[in-house]
Amino acid sequence: MKKISIILLSILCPASLFAQETLSLQQCREMALQYNKEMAASVKQTESALYTMRSYKGNFFPNFTASGMGLYSTADGGYSSGGGFLPVFPDGTGQSLPTGSFAYFPGIDLKYKVGTVYMGGVKVEQPLYMGGKIRSAYRMSVLGKEMAEMNEVLTATEVILKTDKAYALVVKAQEMKIVADKYNAVLRELLSNIESAYKHGLKPQNDVLKVQVKLNESELSIRKAENALRLATMNLCHLIGKPLISDIRISGDYPVVEKGLDVQVSDISARPEYAILNKQVEIAGQQVRLNRSELLPKVGIMGAYDYVHGFELNDQTLMDKGSFSVLLNVSIPLFHFGERSNKVRAAKAKLLQSRLEQENMNEQMMLELTQAANNLDEARLESELSDRSLLQAEENMRISKSQYDVGLETLSDYLEAQALWQQAYETQVDAHFQLYLNYVGYLKAAGALYDSTARVSKEK
Fold it and tell me: What pLDDT score was predicted for residue 19?
């Protein structure tokens, strides 16, 4: 029994400590940016683009190559021309007839053997002019890296948007739970009074049943609110990288929505999508230059040092020394039946396509910004009206209770006043929830939701 108690304590104590964890919105954002899989993939994409850029940058510098080769062969052989007497011709007299004298030629006796042959060398290659191909390719890689960084900002913005919505949904569920509990408390107090009056013969049993029905409905509302809160908490845990069953708590109410926020509907330049579109157009322009380089001359230079050893001739090593060499290569394209020129035309068409797509997307983002600003303005008004409605519903319920207590109002009217108060309370909670969502949606549409200088990953 003692062992069982110890085991239960060891299990329950960490859980109780873990249940006390309270997270703010900023902490949830940081955890989401750190553990979210989409964010991690975006960081790796930026890292890949960085190494690609460095790879293309290396094309500006010379290439050093070392090579070596070895050969062993048992092949051998020889050649002998034989000796004899040869006629002698006069030297420098212009005559083509022999002088009548003879000279003895001992003959040639050659013996060769391949044996072991090896060679090695170092080669240096440096492009001098490639028609702008290297520069254009490097510039495209730089733009690709910048696009990856902007995409990382875009991904972070979307992650923050999802996290804020999940956080606000938990707050809403908590508020709905409070509304349900308050309404249930009001009904229980009313039921207690009605039952007491019924026992003293002051109220009919029908009144007790009416309140009991409403109380049963409120208990169902409490259960729905508890389930909604549990589901919202699980969704938030999923986004911030915690186990779904974690019993986390969030601090405070909805984040404060700036009342004096300067809403603008004319500038989308702060959005990462806007910068990405600009980079895409620049890449398309560099692609035109890259294809045009295939029509221009190319000049390169190569220097090499090679050493060769091997091949025996008459028991003497024939090759046993190194040599330097320099090569200048000039290539001028003449005619390729339109293969290269059509590539340039295709790249120009792609550039025009990118510009048209940029204009179309910019207009869509402007419409989105305008819609977000309108939604925020409407949500502000709706929130203010819901606050007024709740105050009016509370006053109406107070007056209705007073009149019911003195017998000037029926129970049905009082129950209706309570229902109106509950509905106004729920409407206020939903209005504040929508206000914050529309506020966050506007910040995203305006490009102000995420500061690109506060990146989680700063790979440069």
Answer: 47
